[in-house]
Amino acid sequence: MKKLTLAILFALGLHGSAMAGFLEGASAYNARNYALALKEVTPPAKAGDADAQHLLGLMYYMGRGVPRDYKQAFSWHYKAALQGKADAQYVIGAMYYTGNAAPQDHVLAVQWFRKAAEQGHPDAQHALGLMYRYHVAGMPQDVVLAYMLMNLAAAGGHRNAVEQRAGIARQMSQEQIEEAQALSRSWKPGTPLPAQSRTGGS
Known about the structure:
Helices cover 69% and strands 0% of the residues. The chain is mostly helical.
């Protein structure tokens, strides 16, 4: 078992002690021992561990174990997002979208939501689906892509996506629903999401 764990750590490119610090920090965070979490998570975050950076960003955002500091929250999440951490990419997208912790920029918000969504992040898929459904943040209205994204988010466990998908379906033709379902079936995490559909544009 120990050999397997070490093999996984090496495969992930994580230094053993950094990973241990993150796991202990995450455990302390979940137990609401934020002072210990901060002590354990900060070294691996500074060493470049994306999971630790994301957690440290959350601590600064929520003011847990540290004074609330949106600049620090953005900085740590951004470092993790650049390394491909989907949770952090989603948070950066949300920060740009709302203008909370970063200047409001819907173009950048969409870019980061898309990066996370293309990794299979259900919250990011849901957010993009809403943008396509309601024609916001500079996105074209496209019910097929909105349905597809809600379908993917629902499959990933996003509870609100099921209700959204049903609402979108009521505005769609059978041909549009069939296209959306085909797009959902053919898409695989780690591949680009379509930027437009054949039948769903307004």
